[in-house]
Design goal:
This protein has seven helices and 15 strands. It has 268 residues and is an alpha+beta fold. It has an eight-stranded mixed sheet, sandwiched between helices. The chain has a five-stranded mixed sheet with strand order 12-11-13-15-14, with helices on both faces. Helix 1 runs antiparallel to helix 2 (46-62) and helix 5 (188-196) runs parallel beside helix 6 (210-223). The radius of gyration is 17 Å and the shape is globular. The model is unreliable at 264-268 (pLDDT under 50).
Amino acid sequence: MTASIQDRVDAAIDLAERAGELAMEMRPPSGSAQASLKGPQDWVTEADGAVERFLSGELAAAFPADGFQGEEGGITRTGRLRWIVDPIDGTANFARGGARFCVSIACFDGDLPLIGAIAAPALRETVWAWRGGGAWLNGEAIRTAETRDPAQAIMEVGWSRRSPDADYLKLCGHILAGGTSLRQGGSGALGLADVAAGRLDGYAELHINLWDVAAALVILREAGAIVSDFMAGGGATAGNALIACAPGLADAWSGLPGLPRPGAIVAG
């Protein structure tokens, strides 16, 4: 019998949570980072590979016709429907025994996000959505915040070595000038999930990769967020700048330096 989208939704939630349990078993104790560096502040742990291998194997067994792409191994299978996995987002936090990390699983039809599941095991939270099915946090429906004034807003601005520090500081300066409070949590997927849940009013990053945002794109869409077109200009392969925000702040945050305009059409 051909697997349905609902079968894939159920599998995404289940596998994200099971992968989160595996990550918890492998989480280092608190203290200095126990990980290797792929580049400055670009950490990888033994758990990254183990979780990705687990997810690849389980998804191949359940949906053999589907493609698979992981942060660590790249594209290892092709198919019209493809799974995009970040085995541990927030690795720098994870490597020091921190709680703010997650497993991110998405299913795409071409460039169209269909399903997203983000499990944060140390926080005991799972966020998921599917196209047309709403966005959910531990089984409760979520929506973006109703904030309209930047002076009452909170935005997370992701940082990485992929963009010059001067550009990052310029962006933060413009946001602060509008009276917005800034956050930096070390996990793009969880920052975007917090926008969907109304805990943050916006998330921005000057360059972020597909696996970091894949699951969040459909979650944001279903929660009512306004999101820039991440897939434009080769975002699927090269990464892109991204801004996601509550609808009432889209106009105020249009034209921030280095960022595309928040789109009138929500993610995808």
